[in-house]
Write a structure and sequence with these properties.
152 residues, alpha/beta, two-stranded antiparallel sheet, 5 helices
Length: 152
């Protein structure tokens, strides 16, 4: 069993109220190979919501208290991102998931890149908060763009 970002399965849970429908994600659901989660909604954030970015590092830095997640309106939403990551981890552990396919660039789910915290559209290497927590707990994370994301 895998975890997959819910937006990849057609759930309109992104900050803008849209999805990022990926046919491989839908197929994984049909074949009961994945459980969809949206850490931001699990953390109590509404949909739609202002976009947010990590300021001062990446998801590992947020977990360690060295960086924050801030929305475009200047509100610190770090606690919601941490809560959502913890809830997503509980689901993954309960399901015995060892792998997660997550939406790239997200402050929660990014597995290789996140936005730089300036709301300028610039991406930097790093992982989101949920991805970092998954990695620290032995769950492999990868982007939806990885060619092998629909297998096994």
């Amino acid at each position: 069993m895998k975890i997959i970002s819910a937006c990849l399965t057609g759930c309109e849970c992104r900050y803008d109220g849209k999805s990022c429908l990926d046919e491989k994600g839908v197929e994984m659901l049909r074949n009961r190979k994945a459980i969809p989660v949206c850490p931001e909604q699990l953390g109590g954030l509404p949909t739609p919501r202002p976009p947010a970015e990590i300021v001062g590092g990446d998801g590992f830095d947020v977990l360690d208290g060295r960086a924050r997640v801030v929305d475009r309106e200047g509100r610190d939403v770090t606690e919601a991102y941490l809560k959502g990551a913890r809830e997503a981890l509980k689901i993954a552990q309960a399901a015995g998931a060892r792998r997660a396919i997550l939406k790239e660039n997200s402050p929660s789910c990014g597995s290789s890149f996140v936005y730089d915290g300036t709301f300028s559209g610039k991406k930097v290497p790093g992982v989101g908060v949920t991805a970092a927590l998954f990695i620290r707990n032995g769950i492999e994370v990868q982007s939806e763009a990885a060619p092998e994301n629909g297998e096994n």
